[in-house]
User: Fold this.
Amino acid sequence: MFAQLTTSTQAAAADSDSGHQVLTISLFATFVAITLGITIWASRQNRTAADFYAGGRSFTGMQNGFAIGGDYMSAASFLGIAGLIALYGYDGFLYSIGFLVAWLVALLLVAELMRNTGKFTMADVLSFRMRQRPVRTAASISTVVVSIFYLLAQMVGAGELVSLLLGISSAAAKNIVIAGVGLLMIVYVVFGGMKGTTWVQIIKAVLLMTGAAIMTFWVLAKFGFNPSALLSAAADASGKGEAFLEPGLRYGVESADATKTLLSKLDFISLAMALVLGTAGLPHILIRFYTVPSSKAARKSVLWAITLIGIFYLMTLALGFGAAALVGYEAITKQSPGGNSAAPQLAEALGGVGTTPGAIMLAVIAAVAFATILAVVAGLTLASSSSLAHDLYANVIRRGKVTTDKQEVRVGRISAVIIGAVAIALAIPAQSLNVAFLVAIAFAIAASANLPVILYSLFWKRFNTRGATWGIYGGLISALVLLIFSPNVSGGAVSATTGKAASLFSDPSIDFHWFPLNNPGIISIPLGFLFAFIGAVTSKEFNKAKWAEMEVRSLTGAHAEKASSH
Amino acid sequence: MAEPPATAEAAASTVNWEQVQDSPEFAKLRHALRSFVFPVTIAFLVWYFTYVLCAAFARDFMNIKVFGVFTVGLLFGLLQFVTTFLIAVFYARHMNSKFDPQADQLRDEIEGTA
Assistant:
């Protein structure tokens, strides 16, 4: 069965290549043209800082829910999770559950209270009752670090996708694609601001949900709408039999070595912690709560987001198992060892490999994937540039003396260009890194550095400046240090498939790792909470008036930032 | 924009926040929030990590077939989706009925529109 599929895929690849490529490029060009049009329209409306950073706070809960979905369902979840399920079955499903349950943390503890207290950035909330400069500096640094890791993941993914789908494999062409994605995201953010970026994300979410729904329906139809038949076919085709539907093929892998088995399981638990606690600390997600007029609308937007994201991950089950059954393990790994190509390959297989419908499906899904990446990178760029401009420049460097909206928006635009340029410069050498790994790092840092201080500052009376700075720097540094000395970065182990070191350094003789896990979360998240706690209790600072104002405002929404009225 | 940010901040600075914070109404509001979100957060985290720990350490249990190809593990995973949706709905209901009316009333009093 494998052999057949592989040969048919290869044969099809030879003659359908140019057809679907032209179609992919034209569909993608249409998406870019439409979104640029929206960006130009939005740029005419960007009059104030609230327009630029928060879309005038005038989106509805439903619109923002779609935009959150568009921001969150990155290429890593669409291509990555479908690919993980296609290759490892059950364990890919495990991954998506963490991504979904995480939204409850955001819904119950963070979204509404942040909306009521802040203005443009995560630091607005963290620094509310603290000394402004140290807390804003720390929050701005962690915002940029988290966003850059996430940004790198998306841009590296874009490069991979292009080489996969357009058959371009030269390094120069990949670099051009990465630079092109970077330039587009700068244009979206600089001209469109939050309003333009939000619309790009809404459109993308609709496209992605539609694309995934069509494929899900098609896959289920092929198996007579019988999930058992789909699962059995996937298990059979995977060559792993029943194990494909059971945990353990990818995470917590069991081997003869008991220590190794335990470490592998701990690594899995560490990843699960980072996934479930990271979401509510992702700056580009947090600033989305400012785009709606009230905390009730923020609640509504998270409810929409949970619905969309939940349905989407259920659909990735059908896509992943569908790809395992209809495309097959070997055909997928031949295209991309990590499985990122499973969803597009499934699209082609559904339409019929080598046929026109197959080429059309492949082109459509490939274009959706590009759109996905563009929308997410725009959101990330906006989050980091607003933090640089609003926190670091306006409040730290100028000590809050930047008063005109015009000035603050101008600095925001300059920051977007800087962040975009840095991201392009970093993404080009980072291309050998694994996309899922980069995303997991972003989540681990967000959970270690941001979430503890967000929760303490919203709920703990005693929290103060030292607690916030120790928490952010402590969580950030412990996550980064553990990461540097993890097997993935400095382990030097040789990968069986490529014969090269699987770590950051391609020379297998470079091995200076001492931390046995790839995901630092299990240590760095508790450390983040601990550092923040120790910092707070060792400092006597307590601003009673500001705490009263913050708590009352966060719960009642009194004097919260209002929507623009134009 | 309806009003420059300076005005909103100026309005906020005239409020006696500590007095509101110390009021029994506010204590009731705080209780309405915390008595729901704290226990529910602990519950769903325990529920999620039970699932994760089972996937790591209780594989024999997870691999029991319930019907057809559906194992305990698959159903447990799908249940996580169900509970996530349910908790979100319960939270929204709780807030709509128990929290919002109180919060709105307090806000109107503070902003002087009541």
